[in-house]
Structure formats: structure tokens, C-alpha cells
Write a structure and sequence with these properties.
Blueprint lengths: L15 H18 L5 E2 L5 E3 H7 L5 H6 L2 E3 L5 E4 L4 H10 L9 E10 L11 E10 L4 H18 L4 E7 L3 H17 L6 H5 L14 H8 L10 H16 L5 E2 L11 E9 L7 E7 L3 H4 L7 E7 H7 L12 E5 L5 H13 L4 E3 L6 H10 L4 E5 L4 E6 L4 E6 L3 H8 L4
Parallel strand pairs: 1-5, 7-8, 12-13, 12-14
Antiparallel strand pairs: 2-4, 3-4, 5-6, 6-11, 7-9, 9-10, 10-11, 14-15, 15-16
Helix pairs in contact: 1-5, 5-9
This protein binds adenosine-5'-triphosphate and magnesium ion.
Adenosine-5'-triphosphate binds next to strand 6, strand 10, strand 11 and helix 11.
Length: 417
């Protein structure tokens, strides 16, 4: 026997029952985001590698170790998209969306690819729902986006949701703070983990993310970015908070909140769920006022978030979704009735009746059992000469008619004809 082939590590198949749950989630996302003015966008599954190198940041985990990068037949370096914001900003510039009324509000549900250590809630191909509002630095944009994600998580039934919020200020303020933090880290070098010590130059802010006990103790006394925000950044953050208070969205200010992407400015936030274990992040995002310009567009503010579909599914109380109810099961009284029965099934489907037909060579008894299992409303047992017995399984009634009358009969009885 040939050896079995399995799905690659960190990937999974979405089988029909799970697909129905995910479709329900997609439906909720659409119902929440479209009326708020967000239009669906889909970008390619791969982009030129430079987009992510520039747009996500060379010092990030994503660019340093998580990208699926390959060369195509033409020798170009391409990368399977690890996140959605940089591609959407690329599309914003490419399609001249700065000429539209601002902000341009977009949402997506797409799959993303990261070479990570696969475990529950962490995959190498995963799906995100995301929203971006590009072209306005109004704090109401930040508050609107955060409130919409809170509504989505609530509507889906994600349990134990907490929102952490912070501000990273502007690049200039952050640079000054960065130096201050670097001197502090160097002064306490002996207590830090190797990883953090090696990254003092490259990305000192990540020290706030560390699990290492010694590092954590040092970070508790570290200087805080929030305390050194420039006045206009502090004002922006205060307005975002006031709007969230007004909207009664609960949050905690978290000084240690550092988002994994380099491009964030001002507001950053993360939603976690107590229902998840180690991979507790359900969604997060922030403002990225420098990104569009970094990608070759005009200076343009932006803000957005992404939430993980698999983590939502893990953290939400299971809501069983039933398969589409079956209106009609077309059964064969004898094998020679195949073509006639096929005609009935096709006519029924064209009339939008949910119709199954016999495809497994079952006996008449077996076919009736199958119709029962599917909870079909009607069974039509078709003979080769077209004589058909139509059973209403809900009423327990039965009548004889011609094959060509079956669909009209059902439609009339259901008040559809
Ligand atoms: P984490 O800290 O868990 O690695 P992250 O900061 O890398 O998350 P983001 O890039 O902000 O995550 O992506 C937003 C959301 O996408 C996360 O909150 C999470 O729900 C989901 N997500 C991120 N990476 C994965 C993955 N490898 N598998 C499944 N979901 C993921
Ligand atoms: Mg990550």
C-alpha cells in the first residue's frame, strides 16, 4: 500500500460542520461591519517580500522567523501574507484610494501564513477577520474600531473577554523613550534573559513581553512610555479613552502592552479571553500613522485590528449549527427509474427545494431509512414509467401522481406555488 499523505504540520481541514460555524461567524462580522461603513476587500495570498520587510518591520518576529518566503519561476522573492494591514495599505496606495472620501474603511476575512510552533490556537495557516480605517487620525476612528471588535466578540459569544489598551505615542517620542529604556536595560543587563539582552539594540520594547522572571522584575521598575507621551499624543489617547467610557466599553490600561508589529503609533490594544490557555490573544490592533507613507504613499494616518477565527471558535461557547433542512428526498422504486428520478430532482433544485437523490444503490427500505435520517419533509418514490408515490413525512400522508407533478404539488402545499 502507498503511504498515507497527511495535511502539513500546523494546517487543518475545515470539515462541513465546522465550516457552518465559521460561516455563521462570517455572517456576524458582515452584519456588524458593513452597516458601519466597512467594505469587504480581498488581496492576493502572496505579495512581493519587500512589502512585509518594509511594512511589518525587520525587527519583528514575523519578518525574522515566521515568513513563508520563496522564489517563483521568474526569480522574484514572494511571501505568503503573514498579516493583512501591509497588503491593504499597499492596495490603498495602488488604487489611489486617498482620492476617495476619508477615511476609507475596509474589512476582510482571509487566511494568513506564519511559520510558528504549531499548537492549539496557533497554526501555520490560519484565518483572521480584520478591519482597517485609513485616512483619518480622529480618535473616534480608534474608538469606533475597538467598539466594533468588542461588539463582534460579544455577538459571537467569546467568553471572559478583556481589553488592554495603551498608547505608543509618535515615532519621535518613541525614539527618545527607546534610548531611555535602552540605558535602563543595559544598567540591569545581568538580570535579563539572553534573548532580551541580545535584542536591547534591535527592539528594547519587546522586553515588556518577556516571560522570564528576572526580566519581568526589571521591567516592573522600567520607565514607562505612557508617562512620557508628547502633549498631542497624550490628548489623543485621552480622547480615545473618553469615547470608550462613553460607549461603556471596559478596558485596562496596560503599560507593558507592546504589539508585535513595528508600524504602530499612538493607540494599541489587545483583546484576550480567559477561555483560552497559553494563546490567550483573540484579537488586537492599533494605529499606524506612518505605514502608508513607508510603503510609498502620501502621508496618511490609519488604524485597524485583526482577530483570529480559530481562537474565536475556541473561546466562544459552542453554538451548534444545523445543516440545511432537506425538503425532498428522491428515491428509486427500481434501478430503471434513474433518469426519470434525476429529472424530478433537477426540477426540484431549480425550484430551490433542498433536494437529495438516491446515489448509493440502496433498497427501497434503505432509501426510506436514509430519508428519515436526513429528516426530509417529503420522499418521492419514482418508478420507471413515471408513476410516483409522494410521501409527506411530517403529516404521515401519501399520494400517487406523475413524476412531472411532484414539484408543483410540493410548492402548492407549502404555499409557494
Ligand atoms: P500571538 O501573540 O498569539 O502570537 P500576534 O500578536 O502574533 O499573536 P496578531 O499578529 O496581532 O497576533 O494577529 C491578530 C490575531 O490573529 C491574534 O490575536 C490571534 O487571534 C490570531 N493569530 C495570530 N497568529 C496566529 C496563528 N499562528 N494561528 C492562529 N491564530 C493566530
Ligand atoms: Mg505571533
Amino acid at each position: 500500500v502507498a503511504p498515507k499523505i497527511q495535511a502539513p504540520r500546523g494546517t487543518f481541514d475545515v470539515l462541513p460542520e465546522e465550516a457552518r460555524g465559521r460561516a455563521a461567524l462570517e455572517h456576524l462580522a458582515r452584519e456588524i461591519l458593513e452597516p458601519a461603513g466597512y467594505g469587504r476587500i480581498e488581496t492576493p495570498a502572496f505579495e512581493v517580500t519587500e512589502l512585509f520587510a518594509r511594512g511589518v518591520g525587520e525587527s519583528t518576529d514575523i519578518v525574522q522567523k515566521e515568513m513563508y518566503t520563496f522564489e517563483d519561476g521568474g526569480g522574484r522573492s514572494l511571501t505568503l501574507r503573514p498579516e493583512g494591514t501591509a497588503p491593504i495599505c499597499r492596495a490603498y496606495v495602488e488604487h489611489g484610494m486617498h482620492k476617495q472620501p476619508q477615511p476609507v474603511k475596509l474589512w476582510y476575512l482571509s487566511s494568513f501564513f506564519r511559520y510558528e510552533r504549531a499548537q492549539a490556537g496557533r497554526y501555520r495557516q490560519f484565518w483572521q477577520i480584520g478591519a482597517e480605517a485609513i485616512g483619518s487620525d480622529d480618535p473616534a476612528v480608534d474608538a469606533e474600531l475597538i467598539t466594533l471588535l468588542a461588539s463582534l466578540l460579544d455577538a459571537v459569544g467569546v467568553e471572559g473577554v478583556r481589553l488592554r489598551l495603551s498608547s505608543l505615542g509618535s515615532p519621535a517620542g518613541r525614539a527618545a523613550y527607546r534610548e531611555q529604556l535602552q540605558s535602563y536595560l543595559r544598567a540591569n543587563e545581568d538580570q535579563l534573559s539572553d534573548e532580551v539582552r541580545n535584542r536591547i539594540d534591535l527592539n528594547p520594547l519587546r522586553a515588556f513581553d518577556a516571560d522570564h522572571p528576572g526580566t519581568r522584575a526589571v521591567m516592573e521598575r522600567a520607565p514607562r512610555l505612557l508617562d512620557s507621551l508628547a502633549p498631542d499624543d497624550a490628548e489623543h489617547f485621552a480622547e480615545v479613552r473618553a469615547m470608550l467610557d462613553e460607549a461603556q466599553v471596559d478596558y485596562e490600561i496596560d503599560h507593558s502592552l507592546v504589539r508585535g508589529l513595528d508600524y504602530y503609533t499612538r493607540t494599541v490594544f489587545e483583546f484576550t479571553s480567559d477561555a483560552l490557555g497559553a494563546q490567550s490573544g483573540v484579537g488586537g490592533g492599533g494605529r499606524y500613522d506612518g505605514l502608508v507613507e513607508q510603503l510609498g504613499g502620501p502621508p496618511t494616518p490609519g488604524c485597524g485590528w485583526a482577530t483570529g477565527v480559530e481562537r474565536i471558535r475556541l473561546a466562544a461557547a459552542a453554538q451548534p449549527t444545523a445543516p440545511t433542512p432537506v425538503d425532498l428526498y428522491v428515491a428509486l422504486a427500481e434501478p430503471a427509474a434513474r433518469a426519470t428520478a434525476f429529472g424530478v430532482a433537477t426540477e426540484a433544485r431549480r425550484a430551490r427545494l433542498a433536494t437529495h437523490q438516491e446515489l448509493a444503490g440502496r433498497s427501497v427500505k434503505g432509501q426510506l431509512r436514509q430519508a428519515d435520517r436526513l429528516r426530509a419533509r417529503y420522499v418521492a418514490i419514482v418508478a420507471a414509467d413515471g408513476t410516483t408515490t409522494l410521501r409527506d413525512l411530517a403529516q404521515g400522508t401519501e399520494e400517487e401522481l406523475a413524476a412531472g407533478e411532484v414539484v408543483v404539488r410540493i410548492l402548492r402545499e407549502r404555499g409557494m406555488g
